[in-house]
Amino acid sequence: MSQIKLHKKLSGPKGEMLLDVDFTLSKGKITALYGPSGAGKTSIAKMIGGFMKPDQGLITIDNTIWYDSQHNIFKKPQDRTVGFVFQDYALFPNMSIRQNLIYALPNKTSLPWVSKILDVMELSKIEGERPEKLSGGQKQRVALARALVQQPSLLVLDEPLSSLDAQLKSKIQTYLKNYSEERKLTTLLISHDRDEIESLSDYIYTIKEGKIVHQGKPEINTNTLNNKLQLQGKVVRIEKNENHQKVVLDIAGQTITIEVNLDIQISLNETFYLNRDVC
Ligand SMILES: Nc1ncnc2c1ncn2[C@@H]1O[C@H](COP(=O)(O)OP(=O)(O)OP(=O)(O)O)[C@@H](O)[C@H]1O
To answer: What is the residue extent of each domain of the chain?
Structure first.
């Protein structure tokens, strides 16, 4: 279990804002921070990484203290085992894609792992290119691949898939979800894309003006379905009434109907994920 307690006075175009949050992250789970622009999400990520100092607080990752204002503990950014994907990618410009990944490897014997992840991210064919030649979506995938090869104890993803097309997004979402579970990785996902949050995360904190205003599991309600883990289906029918929408999913040839809140955007033929703990 990891705990994040942060207190910091931020200043923006609308004046001062007090960031005051207290939340937990679970191992092997994807926890999301969701909220509008300026709510303080990226500032939280920067404080976790040690790039911004809180005024007060406590950061404990997998029972290791990274920051504790009461006991004057502040781990330097380079000593925090965190993999970051920031909105501005921060790739090394003088290195090729492959070199960016190799540089991040903690153990140089894991080179085959670089080739595997380049393949998953559909970057193998351009692995010799430098970042300046890449599109936004390609840079984003390199940043994500680089964060994963670091084998961090904490993965922080700030809008990690925003520049990708729907098909690639869906493929990488599935990979990320499986990767987090298999490697028991603690993941913090930051996004204002509700669909992404709903399909990827196990638990969601909604943040507004520096405070947590809501928390809970993704709002997908369904009955049991063979107690299967993480199900992925295709939306084959949508029926709406004034309270909810009924969504018919085709999961490996088996059809099931679930009720979903009206405010969740769903389209025909899209890939839909059911989280393990709602089944
Ligand atoms: N180093 C800093 N010191 C003080 N205030 C800051 C600092 N960096 C950012 N801020 C302010 O903190 C507020 C929250 O910004 P932040 O980037 O954390 O929000 P956000 O929720 O991530 O928004 P977005 O989704 O647009 O990235 C903004 O008003 C910003 O101007």
So the answer is: 2-216, 231-274
Question: With a 6 A CB cut-off, is 142 part of the ligand 1 pocket?
Answer: no
CA 80 to chain centre: 18
Task: Locate the ligand 1 atom nearest the alpha carbon of residue 52 and give its number.
Answer: 1
| Structure ipTM | 0.93
What is the dotted CATH code of the domain comprising 231-274? 2.40.50
211 in contact with ligand 1, CB cutoff 6 A: no
- How many A from CA of 82 to the centre of ligand 1? 20
46 lines ligand 1 (CB under 6 A): no
Phi, psi at 177, each rounded to 5°: -65, -45
Query: Tokens 């405070």 map to which residue?
Result: 211
Report d(CA 1, CA 255) in Å as an integer. 36
Find out if CATH 3.40.50.300 is the number for domain 2-216: yes
pLDDT digits (tens, 9 = 90+) for 61-91: 998 999 999 999 999 998 998 888 876 667 8
